[in-house]
Automatic annotation (TrEMBL):
It comes from the Bacteria. It comes from Sporosarcina globispora. It is found in: Cell inner membrane; Periplasm. Pfam families: NMT1_2 (PF13379). This is ABC transporter substrate-binding protein.
Length: 330
């Protein structure tokens, strides 16, 4: 009898090892799984609402388990998409375009939000003209991220560039949730912040908004976040991708019809992810600087990409007609 139990244990162990080695065949009745990625900022509220309301589960059905993974910046998100750690999610258009231009398998399948990029100067720093940005240290979530390109494009038009391409501005990257303390200590002079962190900075410091969300380049027209998936998913599983987009559209409709409830969901989700509880006043201020839409402005995407090339974030002059799969939002 003991031998029988021993062989059963060995059999289960061997079976478990096979499963751990990535066997792609599912046993009868086994759940499918998708992982949705997003960032803990207000441009990514559609993902938070979809998560809270169970929209992905409703669209994909009981046979699919939905999990969520959060990111602080676009580079790690795109790595996760490329490695299959996530299946879809919200990211800034900058990382999506940068990775597409180097051959990454990524498709924009819907818009998500616009606006929400605010540039602030630490207390006591005199910024009275564009020339005053020369030699200053600025911080963005990532090199070549959406907010970085918006900021550098705005200044490049005045002939001011970062040290990365021969200019005088020094560039740091970091988690936007830490920008307020970095400004207070003088570690950075300028913070290029996505909402709600710009509103947090205004509340916690005496930092001054020096470039508003509607003044910074592409501020009112560029998708601040987009819904992406892999090209393989778009080609091989269009029905599943359509359901993901449908859930995303449901979330945006909810935001439009229930803004106060959507704000409460945002406060709750950001606290769970970052440990920081935003005050309602902060969220209200940030909310006024963004919009939510699943449409994608294709021309603006190309203009933004051309600017990324000019700023040398992209090695080759881009053409993004194949990046956007608009058929899922029609």
């Amino acid at each position: 009898m003991k031998k029988a139990f021993l062989w059963v244990a060995i059999l289960f162990t061997f079976t478990g090892l096979l499963a751990g080695c990535g066997s792609s065949e599912k046993s009868s009745g086994e759940e499918d799984k998708i992982v949705i990625g997003y960032f803990p900022n207000i441009n990514h509220v559609p993902a938070m609402v979809a998560k809270d309301q169970g929209y992905f589960e409703k669209q994909l059905g009981d046979g699919t388990k939905v999990e969520y993974k959060t990111f602080a910046e676009g580079g790690s998100f795109m790595t996760a998409l490329k490695t299959g750690d996530i299946d879809a999610g919200l990211v800034g258009p900058g990382p999506a375009m940068n990775n597409f231009s180097t051959g990454a398998d990524v498709k924009i399948i819907a818009g998500a939000s616009t606006g929400g990029t605010v540039v602030l100067a630490r207390e006591g720093l005199e910024i009275n003209s564009l020339e005053d940005f020369q030699g200053k240290t600025f911080i963005t979530p990532g090199v070549g991220c959406t907010h970085d390109v918006q900021y550098e494009t705005y200044l490049e038009e005045a002939g001011i560039t970062s040290a990365r391409i021969g200019g005088t501005m020094k560039h740091l990257t970091g988690n936007p949730a830490q920008y307020a303390s970095m400004l207070k200590t003088g570690k950075v002079d300028i913070a290029v912040a996505p909402e709600p962190w710009a509103a947090v900075i205004e509340q916690e410091t005496n930092a001054e908004v020096v470039i508003g969300w509607d003044e910074v380049s592409f501020g009112e027209t560029l998708p601040a976040s987009v819904l992406v998936a892999t090209g393989d998913a778009v080609e091989d599983s269009p029905e599943k991708v359509q359901k993901i987009v449908n859930a995303h559209k449901d979330a945006i409709k909810f935001i439009e019809e229930n803004p106060e409830e959507a704000k409460a969901i945002t406060i709750k989700d950001i606290k769970e992810v970052t440990g920081q509880e935003l005050e309602k006043e902060v969220v209200d201020r940030a909310w006024g600087r963004i919009g939510f839409t699943y449409d994608v402005d294709v021309d603006t995407i190309q203009d933004f990409a051309d600017s990324s090339y000019t700023l040398k974030f992209l090695k080759d002059k881009p053409e993004f007609s194949e990046l956007i799969a608009n058929n899922f939002i029609k």
